[in-house]
Amino acid sequence: MKQAAMEIAPANLDLTEILDRIDASVAEGHISEADQWIESLEPADRLIVLSRLSRLTRRNLFLGLPAEKAADYLHDIPEVQALNLLQGIEPNDAVHILDELPKDERADLVGELPQSAQDSILAEMKSDVAAEVRDLIEYEDEEAGGMMYVEFVAVPASLTLGEVTRKLQDNAADIAGYDVQYIYVVESGSGKLVGVLRLRDLLFSTPSQSVRSLMIVAPIAVKATQTLKNLHQFFADHSFVGVPVVDDEDRLVGVLRRGDVENALAEKYANHYMKSQGIVDEELRAMPLGLRAGRRLSWLSINIVLNIVAASVIAFYQDTLAQVIALAVFLPIISDMSGCGGNQAVAVSMRELSLGLVKPSEVSYVLKKEIGVGLINGFCLGLLIAAVAWLWQGNAWLGLVVGIAMMANTLLAVALGGTLPLVMRLLKLDPALASGPILTTVTDMCGFFLLLSLASLWLDKLI
Amino acid sequence: MKQAAMEIAPANLDLTEILDRIDASVAEGHISEADQWIESLEPADRLIVLSRLSRLTRRNLFLGLPAEKAADYLHDIPEVQALNLLQGIEPNDAVHILDELPKDERADLVGELPQSAQDSILAEMKSDVAAEVRDLIEYEDEEAGGMMYVEFVAVPASLTLGEVTRKLQDNAADIAGYDVQYIYVVESGSGKLVGVLRLRDLLFSTPSQSVRSLMIVAPIAVKATQTLKNLHQFFADHSFVGVPVVDDEDRLVGVLRRGDVENALAEKYANHYMKSQGIVDEELRAMPLGLRAGRRLSWLSINIVLNIVAASVIAFYQDTLAQVIALAVFLPIISDMSGCGGNQAVAVSMRELSLGLVKPSEVSYVLKKEIGVGLINGFCLGLLIAAVAWLWQGNAWLGLVVGIAMMANTLLAVALGGTLPLVMRLLKLDPALASGPILTTVTDMCGFFLLLSLASLWLDKLI
Which residue of A262, B60, B92, B100 lies most exposed, with the fewest beta carbons within 10 A? Predict the structure, then answer.
């Protein structure tokens, strides 16, 4: 197999050529030949190739592969492509592939599908599986229930250790795929979590001991509705690798691992960054051009309208500008520098909110802290730009006007930038998404107004 | 204790008041009273309070607490404060606290200290501990050796399962704090990794069986020098919870858990976001004002110089501007919109690089993809702004000039924004840090030049 792989992928083929060969093989219905190409690649290249297949090729490839293999690949490709694929094939084909995934990943994917696709896939699932998936997709992505792992081992407290060991042995085939570190002990009947048994405790004890005598009683658990921020804090406070998740009636519903929380945080940070730069929905360059351009354009359209609104302040002061044309040079500088200073403050607030170092209600604390920075940095930047203006035009009044406008606007931008994310959070809006455009528009308008109204006031000194 | 805690922290005290009380208690040398205040807080509030203590109070508090408690708190507070604290106390006090941390966290902290502080702390450590720490800090933060966990259980292949169980029982006290899921099997003498034993396999087998007969032979391992990107890919390809880490001679040196990789990725994303917004070093609002303002200012200074350079293009065309003053309204719009469009492309490239969906060498692939988006969005934005200019001033030529400048500059910004992160990566520079300022400066200069040179060319049509 390795030999065959080496023959099939000579080192001189680049990814584009390999993509073409896979396309051709799939088009001719030679799915296993296409898969040999994919298998022959290094993992890093394999991911790139799988993500760049055309929609049609990817669809036909996945339909032709054994379900288990298709599920492996589905797990590897970016989620947005996995969702597209599931919507592009027959619901019962989708169910065959989904059945091979771990239960929590299966539910995550189904939960992200549009309602109609979700309904048709759930209708094709066995009723008990569909019920399981429905229960899981009820949870929000950023709460314990939405992140937890549901393939755990639970036993009633009434068993002996010997009976537990036998139970594990009997189910060894199923359990083999699980991430077992603890055995959870539940009350028979109610399913309430009453204890935790460490796998290693089974080793150190005699088979006749009862589970109840050895288990850690009243174990720490988290509610399925706990939020990501609290869970992050929880794992910072406790050195646990995982923690059981219970519902409102204290019934065991899953296990949350430290890695699941870190993973969700990584996604959240990636999202902050993407949104702050104007990429609102996940975009991959392998997506169709029209979709990519359209999504970016919808964000740009809002921005251009806000920009025109802000620039209308300039239009209002055309007469002043016509008499002191040098001001036109400083308009973009003041606009851009306020943006920079304000965005720094936004970033610090986003970080402190994420780490739990500031509460959304602490607006006045942040304001106080940012006013200090705004005064110092506004003064320094104002002084610098005043000197540049004075030296360039030989007019100290121009320096004064430009310097004051820069100082005042930097202070405003820093104070607004620091507090805006907290206020947005209080209003249950997404701070990553709106802070940028709101900040830029307000500081642009104020900056243009400050510079041009001061210039109008002292016009006789500037001409 | 719980009762006492409730008495000591009545619900009507806010965090500032509690901070004052802790300050006062520590100043009077009543450390355990201060700690009772801290213990009485909810975990989320505790983190906020610990992070906002003054440097002096934090220092005296940590020195007064039992080492184990101090280590717990050290683990909770932001890393940058933990490092400050370690530098502010005597090296031997630092060592007492560090000794209570897991080995990998201890090494991470020591590794982040400035060289002189690192040397004095290492000199105070027991020589075997210091040697361990030295070995660990040799690894980069973003490679397997820098992220791995070093408290694992390893046994020689020659033992029987019964001997292994006895060994575990004898060391139960030490091992209790470990995250044991697998027992690693090494060749006696060389320390080479030869197998892996699952904890649960010990349960299902007879004590007289040999480790060698039951272990998974030639287990998958990663090299200590593997990079974060490859490790992320590794865990995407394998459903392992952890993987053994070996050095160049295949000796077992640690265990890397999925969560460690996710954690490092979360940090990386957070860093991308912070740097892209101009926060280069970690900043907490609890830090001294001068430090915060100074760090932000050093980034702003570079930006203001670049801004002045870009705006000098406007100064060059003052005569044109003086004759068509309406152009001044469109200068900031073109500058800002190119920035927006370019930053979107930067963000998509950063994301695709992080996910391994594009290789730094694929500049031409990205360029091709971005030119499509740049043409479509440049055309749309150009058309819109042309219409605004025409309607406002009633001059179709003005619309044409503004529209063409917007189109061409958007295309440039998108193409440059998409490829810049790849080029920076090829040049081993940090794309998150420099893409923004470079992009803005280039697109500002080109945008101003395009608008004003076109206007100069068709000046007779515009007046």
Answer: B92
The pLDDT tens digits of the residues spanning B432-457 come to 777 788 899 999 999 999 999 999 99
- How many angstroms away from the CA of B350 is the closest CA of chain A? 9
Question: Which of A68, A80, A200 is the best mutation test for B, with the most CBs of B within 10 A?
Answer: A200
Separation between Cα atoms, residue B227 and residue B258, nearest integer Å: 14
Residue A3 pLDDT: 36
> What is the pLDDT, as a whole number, of residue B403?
97
Task: Confirm whether pTM is higher than 0.90.
Answer: no
Chain A residues in contact with B207 (beta carbon < 8 A): none
Q: What is the 3-state secondary structure (H, E, C) of chain A?
A: CHHHHHHHCCCCCCHHHHHHHHHHHHHCCCHHHHHHHHHCCCHHHHHHHHHHCCHHHHHHHHHHCCHHHHHHHHHHCCHHHHHHHHHHCCHHHHHHHHCCCCHHHHHHHHHHCCHHHHHHHHHHCCHHHHHHHHHHHCCCCCEHHHHCECCCCEEECCCEHHHHHHHHHHCHHHHCCCCCCEEEEECCCCCEEEEEEEHHHHHCCCCCCEHHHHCEECCCCEECCCEHHHHHHHHHHCCCCEEEEECCCCEEEEEEEHHHHHHHHHHHHHHHHHHHCCCCCCCCCCCCHHHHHHHHHHHHHHHHHHHHHHHHHHHHCHHHHHHCCCHHHHHHHHHHHHHHHHHHHHHHHHHHHHHCCCCCCCHHHHHHHHHHHHHHHHHHHHHHHHHHHHHHHCCHHHHHHHHHHHHHHHHHHHHHHHHHHHHHHHCCCCHHHHHHHHHHHHHHHHHHHHHHHHHHHCHHHHC
Residue A343 with chain B: CB contacts under 8 Å: 277-278
What value of ipTM does the predicted structure carry? 0.81
Is A336's CB within 8 Å of B179's CB? no
**B289 contact residues in A (CB cutoff 8 A):** 369, 372-373, 376
B103 vs A: CB within 8 A? no
User: Residue B8: what pLDDT?
Assistant: 45
Residues 107-166 of B with CB under 8 A from A: 165
CA distance, residue A342 to nearest chain B CA (Å): 9
A384/B301 touch (CB, cutoff 8 Å), yes or no: yes
pLDDT over 80 (residue B11)? no
Whether B9 shows a pLDDT value over 70: the answer reads no
> Which positions in chain A touch B162 (Cβ < 8 Å)?
none
What is the model's pLDDT at position A11? 52
Contact status, residue A247 vs residue A224, Cβ threshold 8 Å: yes
Mean pLDDT of B295-308: 92
pLDDT grade for B6, boundaries at 50, 70 and 90? very low
**A262 interfaces chain B, CB cutoff of 8 Å:** yes
